[in-house]
Design a protein that fits this description.
The protein is mainly beta. The protein is 8% helix and 39% strand. The protein has two domains: 7-68 and 126-149, Chitinase A, domain 3 (Roll); 73-120, Thrombin, subunit H. A hairpin with a 2-residue loop joins strand 6 (95-100) and strand 7 (103-113). The chain is elongated and about 60 Å long. 19% of the residues are buried.
Length: 160
């Protein structure tokens, strides 16, 4: 069976950056199970996996615009250092959780300059070309309820 919209795909994957460093991998863990064609994966990877079958191995290079997007300058915010409370000393590169009108959001401390802190709300993988090695472990048709809910149920899914 080939992967198409509303296929339930089980896959192992390794994600590397341009330097060949592994950023994420299912190796040594359960494979990823997802519903294809509903935006569960980044668009570029879904496109690469269309029409693939169980047992296929795929190497995909995903440009930023088909991945997590380009880095957006409007997602860089300068805030006063005095707004941060807590025991930890703020350091460049550390992640902080912000309470926004859309709920909690993770930001990276991009720069600390005197009393000003620049927070980066871009996805950590924004602006990056992504290198995926994928092995398709299984493909099946989704059940109607899974399609309605927009995700996989049962083993490897959301409901056990």
């Amino acid at each position: 069976m080939k992967i198409s919209k509303h296929s339930v795909v089980t896959m192992h994957y390794t994600l590397k950056n341009q330097e060949g460093m592994t950023l994420d991998s299912s190796e040594g863990r359960q494979p990823l199970v997802y519903l294809h064609g509903v935006g569960a994966l980044i668009p570029g990877l879904e496109t690469e996996l269309n029409d693939k079958s169980q047992g296929d191995k795929v190497t995909a290079v995903i440009a930023p615009q088909d991945g997590y997007g380009e880095i957006r300058k409007d997602l860089l915010h300068v805030v006063p250092k005095s707004g941060f409370v807590g025991d930890e000393e703020l350091m460049e590169g550390m992640q902080v959780q912000l309470d926004t009108e859309h709920g909690p959001q993770i930001a990276v401390v991009a720069k600390i300059s005197g009393d000003e802190v620049t927070l980066d709300l871009n996805h950590p993988l924004a602006g990056m070309t992504l290198y995926f090695d994928v092995e398709i472990v299984g493909v099946r048709a989704a059940e109607q309820e899974e399609i309605t809910h927009g995700h996989v149920h049962g083993h490897g899914g959301h409901h056990h």
